[in-house]
Design brief:
This protein has a single domain, classed as NAD(P)-binding Rossmann-like Domain (Rossmann fold), CATH 3.40.50.720. It is built from four helices and four strands; from the N terminus they run H-E-H-E-H-E-H-E. Helix 1 packs parallel to helix 2 and helix 2 runs parallel beside helix 3. The radius of gyration is 16 Å and the shape is globular. The structure holds NADP nicotinamide-adenine-dinucleotide phosphate. The site of NADP nicotinamide-adenine-dinucleotide phosphate has 20 residues, from helix 2. NADP nicotinamide-adenine-dinucleotide phosphate (NAP) binds next to helix 2.
């Protein structure tokens, strides 16, 4: 996600191929509190969570066709309206930035017939959460339903995998 040269190589290898669904899933979570801010750590999260997804989408955009879908796996922790507990400065700020990129992408790609969904997978039992939460298969099933339902008219929306609309 952060290696421009490697991604350019991927882009070259995929030239002429169509991508139906481009899922930007990779992300990292670090933990900062106001008393323990680590700006390098926050910058690292920007590189992967926000810039990485935009970089991948940019380099693979020539593979997107009418009807293709761009999916950004974000987090409700990037929701300003839903932020009831604070903390996690880097993760929250980078996911909010990713959400903004998603709305911009929806504007830029609407005319090409490509739609965008900004999706929160739920609290999922993965390495990121210390394996607390719903199963990856349950989360993935919800995400796949949201991707299947996505229409150009709804492009740029922010949803929970369970179908709930999330506040910005
Ligand atoms: N789990 C949850 O409850 C939860 C909740 C909300 C949102 N999310 C979001 O869901 C997505 C997936 O998270 P997860 O729970 O599966 O986390 P995870 O278990 O920590 O897995 C993260 C994945 O991202 C990849 N990755 C990290 N940095 C990368 C980079 N620079 N380039 C390429 N790949 C990179 C990792 O690859 P390596 O293993 O090779 O490092 C790994 O496959 C993330 O965007 C996360 O923010 C998760």
């Amino acid at each position: 996600m952060t290696d421009q040269t490697a991604l350019e190589e991927v882009s070259r290898k995929l030239a002429g191929t169509g991508i139906d669904v481009l899922i930007n899933n990779a992300g990292i979570l670090r933990n900062e509190t106001f008393d323990r801010l680590d700006f390098d750590q926050i910058r690292e999260q920007f590189e992967v969570n926000a810039l990485g997804a935009l970089r991948v989408t940019s380099l693979l955009s020539r593979c997107l066709r009418k009807g293709s879908k761009i999916i950004l796996i974000t987090s409700r922790m990037g929701s300003i309206g839903d932020n009831g507990s604070g903390g996690y400065y880097g993760y929250r700020m980078t996911k909010a930035a990713l959400n903004m990129a998603g709305v911009n992408l929806a504007h830029d790609f609407r005319g090409k017939g490509v739609s965008v969904a900004i999706l929160h997978p739920g609290l999922v039992a993965t390495g990121m959460t210390g394996h607390h939460g719903i199963s990856t298969s349950e989360s993935a099933a919800g995400l796949i339903s949201r991707i299947d339902e996505l229409r150009l008219e709804d492009s740029g929306g922010f949803w929970h995998a369970n179908g709930e609309r999330l506040p910005w």
